[in-house]
Amino acid sequence: QVQLVESGGGLVQAGGSLRLSCAASISISSINGWYRQAPGKQRELVAVILRSGTTNYADSVKGRFTISRDNAKNTVYLQMNNLQPEDTAVYYCNAWPVVVFGWGQGTQVTVSS
Predict the structure, then answer these.
(1) Nearest Cα to Cα of residue 80 among 1, 8, 4, 2
(2) Do residues 92 and 34 lie in contact, with contact meaning Cβ atoms separated by under 8 Å?
């Protein structure tokens, strides 16, 4: 069973930064998406990194978030800058475009105004 472990969340003030990490029990090349779920809302895609290294972002985070991958460490990262209260959510990593793995526990990001 594939295990996904997200970490790096926390409580920050608006304008602050966090870097999330995603470790997997399989090759990280299969994990190319960061998602988030805010209270009372559906889970949404935040960022994607393709095998070519091309990245895509949701409009709401474009210019503030950066997804990257370190194959040597088998880890996918999400650098989040200029965080805003609307970024408050539980963040998850998984495959994209098809979520083929079970969800990890996620990491909570809370941004205070």
Answers:
(1) 8
(2) yes
